[in-house]
Queue: 4 jobs
Job 1
Amino acid sequence: MTMHFANVNAMRLAYRVQGAGPPLVLLMGYRLNSAAWPTQFIEALAKQFTVITLDNRGTGQSEKPLAGYALANMARDVFELLIQLEITSTYLFGYSMGGAIAQEFVRQFPERVKGLVLCATMCGGPQATYAKQSVVRVMRDLDGLSPDEAARRIWKVTYAPTYLANNRELAESQMRREIADPTPLHAADLQFQAFAEFDASSALADIRCPTMLLTGDIDELISPQNSKMMVKRIRNAELIVLSGRGHRVIWEATEECTSIISRFFLRIENSCAKEADLHVNDRNAPTLLEALWPALEMYAQWPLIAAETAIDSLSIARQSILATGSAPFGDGKPILVLPQDLGSYLNASMLTAWLKATGYRPVIAHHADLATAKRFSQLITNVTRHLRRKTILITGIAGLTPAIDGAKRHPERISDLVVLGSPGSIDVPSDVRLHYISSGWTPMLTMTTLPQLLRNIPIQLLDQ
């Protein structure tokens, strides 16, 4: 298929068109571009539909900006593309994160969707079932890995174990197609952030087009419980659960999925779907304090809790906050914490655990790292080198001197300095932005004010 380009939403979007018949837009998931779709899947659908595939912003041959990855914005990318293609209505298939983009598209432009299939996806919100922290770590802890190493690591939670054991060569071949044009880490982080904060749960009841939920019954990444919950909230929706299939259900059962999707859309094309009212009882979302309470209790008992258990407790609280929309999720920026004046290394450890749980990549600078300017410079270089992004320094008043010295020596690697306390008048390099929180360090401050401040700091890539 020939790649085409369109200027949409102030960026260049790559797309392909194949086949003839009613238009069908396929929306790909996290990190992947349109080359990842199984060839057999596209070719079979193109016999009955005009299939439109696109590289989501940040992937493939589309632009990879440093902002604009909110799923509502990515849905508008699709809308503007359809406007340019003079397509007034379409069938829509969304896989994983692409299913979330599809939900956003239907919410914003309901009159443009004739039928909808949501595959291996979720709606977010308080009733969503999120992945275990061990699974999230597999997807996120990819620092320093080559594209093929990262892909093989992610296999562990995306393919069904039996399929991977019996089809290793197919998985390798598929992986080679996917990493031919790899997604840069900053774009992957921003996509992950957008998906983590996504919540369309309140809009499900407003979906009026015929809808199908498709999932594998052993999906570890996005539990099939999400599809089972969503089908109850979308009026007249259908649910198909494929036995023994994982998150990559389309790749594991390509022929079966193609048949299911084609039959569903062609049935809509040939007849009008019946509608039925569905009454949904909404559960009240917990307050921010209720969501944070497990983490605050954990902090009070910190000396008695092992570090891994503490991080998992913070992760549970983070999941609760994601579900309520009460706190922002991070974009993977590297953060260097100087523990002076944070009370103790214990407090610094809690701070880094919380920052990691909320989507950042924090590192503590220990006394040995600050012993000499040379060692501190090496730490700054190590923190930023693999991510190819500038870091943020976080310190209390007592850590200002080494923080400023580091910022003066490495403005090319440090973008911002955050001070927990009132710094007064200090001399900071012009290339480094200064932020301070006058009330200093408290546990509640760490879990509320600081993530919002970090969210407002833009990503800065290292100069090539």
Job 2
Amino acid sequence: MSISNEQVIAHPFLKALYRDDYYPDAVVDRGKGILLRLCERIEAGLAELYALTHAATDEFNALQDEFWAAGSEIETVAREEIAEDFWFLAGAYGFADADSEELIATRDW
């Protein structure tokens, strides 16, 4: 399935992480993939928003090990960048009233 939301297509996901050499591009690419798969699921209308964002957050939890293995981690800058992209997605798909903390409630970073 391809993404049809024009806001999402134009959005530079995790851009602050790509600009910083501390975060390995290969691992950030995997994080971007998590967000893009979330977009596909939202567009498909498979479940309610929080269930989808919690599942994507759990994927980021698992990605933490890859950051550590690469000498990096999901720390303050990364946490904020990831959370902002979750909030962006909620708004882009019409969930302006979504609770930003609930979107990523299952995070362990």
Job 3
Amino acid sequence: MTSQANSPIVPRPLNAVFSGLPTTVFEVMSALAREHQAINLGQGFPDDPGPLDVRTKAAEAVVDGWNQYPPMMGLPELRQAAADHYRHWQGLDLDPAAEVMVTSGATEALAGALFALIQPGDEVVLFQPLYDAYLPLVLRAGGVPRLVRLQPPQWRITREALAEVFSPRTKLVLFNNPQNPTGVVHSREEMQLIADQCLACDALAVCDEVWEHIIFDGRSHLPMMSLPGMRERTVKIGSAGKIFGMTGWKVGLVCAAPPLMKVLSKAHQFLTFTTPPNLQVAVAYGLGKDDGYFEGMRADLQRSRDRLARGLSELGFPVLPSAGTYFLSVDLAALDPTLDDEAFCLDLVRTHGVAAIPVSAFYAQDAVRSVVRFCFAKRDATLDGALERLAGALRGRV
């Protein structure tokens, strides 16, 4: 008779939200890129290491500065720098002591906001394609997702689509602008439609604005917080990692009115509590850099966007507009309605040595299955090498 000690252990059921999640498409494509020595235009990170002076400030702060717990809400100098930065660039009047908080990345800020604001059964409006962390976090908080399906080529938000999902049960809307994965910068008119619904339904807006500085063609970022009636019901989330092109830094910036911030800070306290002080010192310095740095960064990324868009177009790929983020997409449906984005991406990395991301992976239901996303935040040589490899990718397909 087999002893109990030698019997296989059958684990009790684990959390259904996370145990049921598949491996992310980013992990899959990055692993395939390594396996096939492919050029990785899938995951969104730049080739460039980031501004040297900001990195130097972080290094100096490790050697010469404070390396114990910083204040839970963030270093006062960073909170002040964030308030000054948003006043200068976006016209926001924020109290750094009561309306600004530092988190360990924007994803933590999103998780904290959703856990703090959602009660089980509350409805949450989401726009798909959506960043992959949104839905699991909403479900884990007990929220009921109400999905708005956006479609190429414009990915526009309409009054009719919002009317179908907003109701008296709506607790909040999670809004990403500029939007990953599409590269769309939603218009003031679209944002006003969302604001009108929030006001009518007494709902909050959690706004993922991490791409606020990665915006092109002379556009300026418009924060939801600045719209009439939205100042007291908006959580604005930014990312120093995106602002300075150092995605591994994981320094998030949260702005909200004091009644919201009091609850948000309690969620943060029991997630990460605080963020490395040397990174906070460096980000405070970086946010005070002159306008030329930010304008030059945008211009460099816009030039890379145009380089990749031009090369893809010359190869026959139907390129969709990209007004922000690190990404531009192609819509295979214009070539052949039967082409599937996931199958196409798998063939690209295995046969042609270029990794991209199928946008269908960003849908929870009723996916658009014809759009492929490329990251253009790369050196010229990287983009040119990818274009050389893609030269035969459409041969025999159209």
Job 4
Amino acid sequence: MAPVDPAEVEVGDIVLARVAGTVYLHLVSAVDPVKKRVQISNNRGRINGWTSHDRVFGICVSVDGVARSGVKGKTLE
């Protein structure tokens, strides 16, 4: 995980986001740059809803040491 610029998040990214007071990993299924929010889904294809940029904290940069593609330029590090 790495800190993320929420404005750079795209469909298909995996983000760390707060939902109902708890922080979870979610798949981004849509983005709304005008309203500064992303639609988050789970790994079973269910859409959980929209969350604002201020609730998106991080982006998954690798899994088991294998880098995820499409992350470059999105992190704050």
